[in-house]
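pasting input
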Amino acid sequence: MIHITLPDGSVKQYESPVTGYEIAKDISPRLAKEVLSVSVNDELWDLQRQITADANIKLHKWDDKEGQHAFWHSSAHLMAEAIEALYPGTKFGIGPAIDSGFYYDVDLPQGQVIAEKDLPLIEKKMLELARQKNDIVRSDISKDEAIAMFEKKGDEYKVELISELEDGTISLYSQGNFTDLCRGPHLPNTELIKAIKLTSIAGAYWRGNEKNKMLTRVYGITFPKAKLLDEYLVLMEEAKKRDHRKIGKEMDLFTFSQDVGMGLPLWMPKGAQLREQLETFLKKVQKQFGYEQVLTPHIGDVKLYKTSGHYDKYGKDSFQPIHTPQEGEEYLLKPMNCPHHCEIYKARPRSYKDLPIRYAEFGTVYRYEQSGELHGLTRVRGFTQDDAHIFCTPDQLKDEFKKVIDIIFIIFKALEFNDYTAQISLRDPKNTEKYIGSDENWEKAERAIVEAAAEKGLRTVTETGEAAFYGPKLDFMIKDAVGRSWQLGTIQVDYNLPERFELEYTGADNQKHRPIMIHRAPFGSMERFVAVLIEHTAGKFPLWLTPEQVVVLPISEKFNDYARKVSNILNISDIRTVVDDRNEKIGRKIRDNELKRIPYLLIVGEKEEADQSVSIRRQGQGDKGSMSIDDFARLIKNEVEEQLASIY
Amino acid sequence: MIHITLPDGSVKQYESPVTGYEIAKDISPRLAKEVLSVSVNDELWDLQRQITADANIKLHKWDDKEGQHAFWHSSAHLMAEAIEALYPGTKFGIGPAIDSGFYYDVDLPQGQVIAEKDLPLIEKKMLELARQKNDIVRSDISKDEAIAMFEKKGDEYKVELISELEDGTISLYSQGNFTDLCRGPHLPNTELIKAIKLTSIAGAYWRGNEKNKMLTRVYGITFPKAKLLDEYLVLMEEAKKRDHRKIGKEMDLFTFSQDVGMGLPLWMPKGAQLREQLETFLKKVQKQFGYEQVLTPHIGDVKLYKTSGHYDKYGKDSFQPIHTPQEGEEYLLKPMNCPHHCEIYKARPRSYKDLPIRYAEFGTVYRYEQSGELHGLTRVRGFTQDDAHIFCTPDQLKDEFKKVIDIIFIIFKALEFNDYTAQISLRDPKNTEKYIGSDENWEKAERAIVEAAAEKGLRTVTETGEAAFYGPKLDFMIKDAVGRSWQLGTIQVDYNLPERFELEYTGADNQKHRPIMIHRAPFGSMERFVAVLIEHTAGKFPLWLTPEQVVVLPISEKFNDYARKVSNILNISDIRTVVDDRNEKIGRKIRDNELKRIPYLLIVGEKEEADQSVSIRRQGQGDKGSMSIDDFARLIKNEVEEQLASIY
């Protein structure tokens, strides 16, 4: 008798081995139609694979990451099948599922290429093959047999991959006439793949090594319903328009230079202004919550990072140590601010009366990322964290967590992120030896996080076993205006660094105690946050935040002086105003400045100068009538004040 | 006939060779008594050395650096003579004049030491020898003779130094029984040395190499009048009290950590607050003058610094390049911000209508200094420049210079530096080939600086030949409250970087032109400036600037709540207020907080709580009566506003 335990705790009994698909069908025929893969004792399996012993299982549909993963993995095979049919003799590298779709690296026969224009043909072939409703069948063969098989086919890449596997059974997956080396899992049948879009082509060195041959990487995405593909295409179109790299250029926010280096953004005046607004805003909020700013250097002696453990973690794959003319002296670019803050904590003896101590710093850190992984402001090599470290007693932990949640709420509200959830990551209670810190402290900390989140009414998922070895944490996920999810904002408890740095405070009992540290960064990094904010708002930042609030457009050069007068009056009232005095037609000026996302456009000509007034256009909303300069200044001031009042 | 041209252009004629001393006597017997050395064709000479051909000369008295240099150099010899007399068998290393006095490195005979307590004895001996009125006589001998002489004396250090000199004549100086290897120049006679103070003792490796023997370095200073020594001692006493390292600790402004690294300051909350106040103040001023903030990373590809020329300049003696896992990729910690700002300039095409462009950044740079040269915040390895680069046309140069001078005036006024001068450094018109940039541009730039300084009523000295090879400059020197001079604030024209980075703008003529760059940093570096400011004000910063403006001192724990209420009310009005709620006697609290230089101390007890008032003490001035909380808040606000109104 086999006992199958479902996620809700209910148990089904079977007399003989059973597949995930059979269990789904057993539950409901409708579920059997929708199910894509199954987790068996936390391992992802094909639906058709026999479960031969008692197991905990979870069935995955399209709305699970695990379901999508199998779907896209099978789609990669389907694409390979189509390419093999269209380009016989093609050799295949690897073809994984990725976050959003899949790709396959292929080596086409001598003289043949796949270009963008060929993608529709491959899509068509894939649909044709999918409609053959071929079963996807797993088979296990020996390593030697597998090598012989792919040698015969002439597929040297697969042979290379197989030879590196451990001896034993190798799994293959076949559908129709196509067989691939693969760990799985896969869909039961290709017919589930209903809608297909091949999205792009890129070159990729075999195994990422530039000394190897360059293969052709074909990217695609597939869906179980045509409607889902349509929605995806609309979203992609919208995301393209909101690409922060495109908008960053249009708004003159930041730039990159090959000579400074990849992944090292240069903030132009308007971008620097935007960052300063964000930093000033957060500093103000943090001041109210009792934070103190500190400033620390961007390097530290290697000793410091050996103490903290970062040297081992970032050592080999990162920026290498900086030597000096003094033999044996070595510094590291700082990958994190925490060790420096620990040293400030240690600069003086501390008493329980001093706690909690909250050190905040907009600290720029440097971490080496592979050049292929760099992307605009979201993945860079130097970034500024809105970092802070709270040193507190175990009893203060819950209250401090609640205060950090409050700060994150204020930020989300100010920046109009209204859809967010949080994940609580706890330790695995079955493996407590993996974690540093006493059981008592862990229980206290985990309870503190769970209660703090509940008391603040946060929507949370709890993941057991997802805590870092040094403490439990709380992560925020936001949904942006086009429905994409971004991880922002982390609160992390740390028992490790206080131990490593031997941090202490004198308690009310006059004994030495170890404080607990909380790492927290509501924005995460200024670079990534600005990128997300641009894509969320399409560059139309809230008025209080946007670098240029008003642009004055003289109808002709005759009114440039009046335009400058208007601009000066507004700037004196701290309204960030510029003048577009180019010798261009007014229509062109309006278009150009709308593209710069300046919220208010003031048109001034003869009538306005005579009345000492301005004609107002709201970005994207057109004409808003005219009023006196002073009334307009009051209007803007009120709008900003109302926004800020609703935040704090 | 020998023609001697004096600095005022007048010419004296002599029939035979003549000495500087004879010329001085010829001018006036009084001058002959005061003169210490002479510059002959810009080379520093002994007064007794024969001038055998036509020459331009300048006679140096005590008020010239060159005069002091000869005075202290001879004093080093006098100290060596005294040490040789008191400790026969001592060997001598080097004994130069320094900025303020002199030192000599000595190797005492086996078993003997010089300690602090021995210094008065050496001083006494020096005075005794000085009163012997010995002539200091130069003699020239061959290298071989010199080696033989010092070998005989057993002075291996001098032998080593001489063997490294080029073959030819070696100069020696003798006085009484003492002879030293020396290039000179020296005083004519030891009798000019009237007042002597040996100040300290340190260990110093022979030739600065830690593999060599550690010698004893004895520091001293001497004067031509006893009164000058008295004044110097008073100044030193005062300077010691104002030492920024001492006050920085008392006020909790900054700290250093061995594990972060020497010369890398960590700014504690109050220091970070002070810096932020200074930065906000300067940003506000700069905004009024049309500056735009930018933000750039702290590293750059080595290529960038090869283009700028900094790699050659800072290369070997500085922080070494940072390697990455990618072969051939190398970055440098940035020693200067200018290359990054050039790249921002280059990010877009520029027109003459865009100029002047003024990019400002509080940019942290890293330069390696020898550990022995590090000193508190004045000499560090990482520092933040209040940097800006102005890109302009040649015609805009003068106006831009005037605007920068205005900014520097505002800063000096705000920070109560009332005694300052400036040095204009021009190129050497006889060696124009040493300089980059056209004659026309140099003439224009030099005229612009001279006129700008004159129109702004600046007290200046002009030094011909002191310009950098890439442009003329203007440096500000301030005198602090105890009379010491500090160099602060530089304005530097640069023709070189625009050339190296191929910067361009399109002129009104539609042709490409090269802009001129101005580097300027009114504070210089935030670290050094804060150090100077602490020593100038003894930590008693102006009210608008000081990190903590008010401290509330409850008379006993009973009044802690009321103290916190007062503090909250003041903080809401943006008055930076803290509470000292330690369980200490009120007298102790007053003393401790006076030491922290908090300008206002509010004492609150039963009476104050009943009246909702505060009793006021002004730091260093004692009791100032009592008033309501609101009245006190108004008082502070008014004081700050008055200070700021007088600045802008």
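fyi The mean pLDDT of chain B is 93.
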